[in-house]
Amino acid sequence: MSSVKVAVRVRPFNSREISRESSCIIEMSGNTTCITNPKVPPGTSDSVKRFNYDYSYWSHNPRDPEFSTQEMVYSDIGEEMLQHSFDGYNVCIFAYGQTGAGKSYTMMGKQEEGQEGVIPMICEDLFRRIQETECADLKYSVEVSYMEIYCERVRDLLNPKNKGNLKVREHPTIGPYVEDLSKLAVTSYQDIHDLIDEGNKARTVAATNMNETSSRSHAVFTIFFTQRRVDKMTGLETEKVSKISLVDLAGSERADSTGAKGTRLKEGANINKSLTTLGKVISALAEVASKSKKIQKGRLHPVPRLGADLAAAREPRRQLQDGDDCRDIAGRYQLRRNAEHAEIRGPCQTDRLQGRRQRGRQREAHPRAQGGNPEASRTAQSRGHRGAGRGRMRQG
Fold this sequence. Notes:
Layout: E1 7-10, H1 15-19, E2 26-29, E3 32-36, E4 48-52, E5 55-58, H2 70-86, E6 91-95, H3 103-107, H4 118-133, E7 138-150, E8 153-156, E9 168-171, E10 175-178, E11 184-186, H5 189-202, E12 205-206, E13 214-215, E14 218-230, E15 237-248, H6 255-258, H7 263-286, H8 316-331, E16 334-337, E17 342-345, H9 347-365, H10 374-395
Helix pairs in contact: 2-4, 4-5, 7-8, 9-10
């Protein structure tokens, strides 16, 4: 099972695109997404770019037989993430894309039948499963928080009266956290629904040429899910805690396309700055590199470390490439676990270490390679083992 999965979704034309009689340049077949460059002559190598993802959702025309509904998106993505949280894992879903791409619709949806997004559906499903499985030996508790990152300032959406800039701190055990962020206990889906509605009203939105209700901030809705089980034989209680991070990123934008001026222009600059930083994180993680790279930090930078996948938002073709980079993160690193520690090695380091071990085994099998001197052979064997040991220490 891959630790990172990527899905792409195509939305219907909006009123602006319909009035311009725009043409759709994206096609989907299975999990393959193709984007055509209208500025390049057809039939050339650069005219069509193909990308393969875990999921491809065609939501362009409701009349198409392959049309993907909100429920289909949740069935593929949300249900799996919820199961992982019951298993005790931290999970995250990022929605990213250009402004007006439909991120908030996919994540939040609308308050209409069949139009609910991933966040309300995963919350409703969570409490449905709690009701079905809770018993005397198994108890659950759920807490939620909701924040936005607006112009590099962190705001508590569940306590909008607190206008101050909340601080992002680093804990040695749990990692980054937001100081003084409200964490409210909930006992039903209706409780969460009311809090989401309250938070959405406090979120910063504004109209631009590209989007009438453009989100001007990144929003992070987090569910803290605790399971307490009592062992019937010993009477001991065990606790399993997981975190579900649901992130609706603000859309990347170009000032000449959005017509942004004044405050809107400043907002767009901060949005693009944070998304560029996040894009650098993706690129750095996806590269096959043996040394760490310095990355400029922003308020959005620590957020993915709250148990999240990494993603960024740029222009359509760049967005698809970022999706490929996200998948590379899972494939380029080897996770090694034992009872004492966990190591993450990049492919270059792993190859070098395996090479040292192989050379050591060859020396043991062929002592004459050392000039027929048994003492030299024993010395070579010893050096081979020490070299491999040093390799492990450097990589650990």
